[in-house]
Amino acid sequence: LAKTTQPISMDSYEGQEVNITCSHNNIATNDYITWYQQFPSQGPRFIIQGYKTKVTNEVASLFIPADRKSSTLSLPRVSLSDTAVYYCLVGDPDNYGQNFVFGPGTRLSVLP
Amino acid sequence: GAVVSQHPSRVICKSGTSVKIECRSLDFQATTMFWYRQFPKQSLMLMATSNEGSKATYEQGVEKDKFLINHASLTLSTLTVTSAHPEDSSFYICSARALSDRDANEKLFFGSGTQLSVL
User: Fold this and answer.
1) What confidence tens digit (pLDDT) does each residue in A19-43 have?
2) Is B43 in Cβ contact with A43 (below 8 Å)?
3) Which chain B residues contact residue A41 at CB under 8 A?
4) I want to staple B80 with a disulfide (CB 3.0 to 4.6 A). Which of A26, A58, B61, B68 is the partner?
5) Contact indicator for A101, A5 with CB cutoff of 8 Å
6) What integer best gives the mean pLDDT of chain B?
């Protein structure tokens, strides 16, 4: 199982761009990188997923270098409602769930 | 995106009673569902993998007689906490893996969680 390492916590201010980096040194060839967001007393919510280079959707961007040993989730212009825990997970989509190990995640606090 | 419905969202029970939590995939079929528990300020811990029509696979340290899992159909899995005690109080979350690649990227969908409080 590819283990991931993220900062435990981050603080930001409203309107700023936030970048959260995740290390996954032993990522396997078939593994994708997926980021989830979790608010208190709610289940995780899918944010973005990628395999290599850059992926962008309406809420975030995901940057993955060529060696794929790390990835960076970028949240543009955060608001107070982006305060949450963000999890980086690595796994083979065909086996999603069994090989998803949730680390402690990154607790993002957005301040006014 | 796909929807996974989890009920109840909150339950309070007396010690010694059993509690059943349901997890339903509303608009897709899920041969595999997963159950997690999460303590305050901690991450999700996988408890068991539930496969439709077969016995669940439990993670090390999870008592299968304590946490009964049934996955009788492609859209429903249930977790029953038997003879609940205060130490079982936790946030329980289910997830379901889509049978087909219904969304371009997302294959694993989570329920909204169940807060169990055992008095």
Assistant:
1) 999 999 999 998 999 999 999 999 9
2) no
3) 91, 113, 115
4) B68
5) no
6) 90
